[in-house]
Amino acid sequence: MKIGILGFGAVGISVYYELKDYKDIYILVDEARKEKYENTKFYVNENLITPNYVTNKVMNLVIVAVKNYDLDNALDSITPFVNKNTILLPLLNGIEAHDKIKERFPFNRVLYGVINIEANKNGNKIKASKIINLQYGDEYNYNLKAPLMFLRKLFNSYKINNNIYHDMKRRMWLKWMLNLGINQYSALYNMTYLEMNNKDSLEYLFNIYDEVYKVAQAYKINLTFDDLEYTKNMCRNFKSNRVTSLTDDVNNKRKDESYYFGHKLISLAEAKNIDVPYNKKIYKDLCKKIEDNK
Length: 294
Description:
CATH topology of the largest domain: Rossmann fold
Order of helices and strands: EHEHEEEEHEHEEEEEHEHHHHHHH
CATH class of the largest domain: Alpha Beta
Number of helices: 12
Strand content: 15-25%
Radius of gyration: 19 Å
Largest sheet: 6 strands, parallel
Shape: globular
Number of strands: 13
Distance between the termini: 44 Å
Helix content: 40-55%
């Protein structure tokens, strides 16, 4: 199986790094990026990597690991790597990537994907944890078909923690719920994961999650009360001194994904006449901070 990674940011590079010894893994680029990347040395946790960059090779699986704001442009350039049998696996934050990709490639198999990892990129240097949980699959997964079984075997062989859950849309919302709290809160107050593990921060985060849970119920997403408590317990156990990707982008005045967190949740809530004051306030305050920092 030929595997291509589209997007060479913190997530894309981190996934490549854990699969770098697989014989058929490629970084998908256009000619301009190929020349630029081949003349740049990239390091993951101080280890030099030497990816195989390709501009025109059909893949069996394309892992889409761009930022949300780059997705439309990325899909415009993906054609040389895709035929009717290519499977696409998005690993973006948020809940929109699967549907956008499916709309562009209606006859291809588009999986749901979620990645949990602590990774930050600064220029050509990436600091990353091991992948905490790589989640993938169709919307519902009860009788697994050959491609998913192959991926499970592949990821297991490289000791990548991975799971195919029965309900992947639920898992996608579960991570989005977590990110709506920690990404926005950490970016607003410039906090590490560990620094958010205090009484006042947790109280605000939990109010955000309670609101997201109400919105999920209104849209018949199968999030459970146990999922809500699981998310809160994750925050109670934060110990890392790393920052979220959104915090890293805001601190470095890079284009950020805040729109795909707060704005999307608020829009969904308003469509169902659900009041989400904590989400509204944090999104408004974060937008002001980003604007003031320009």
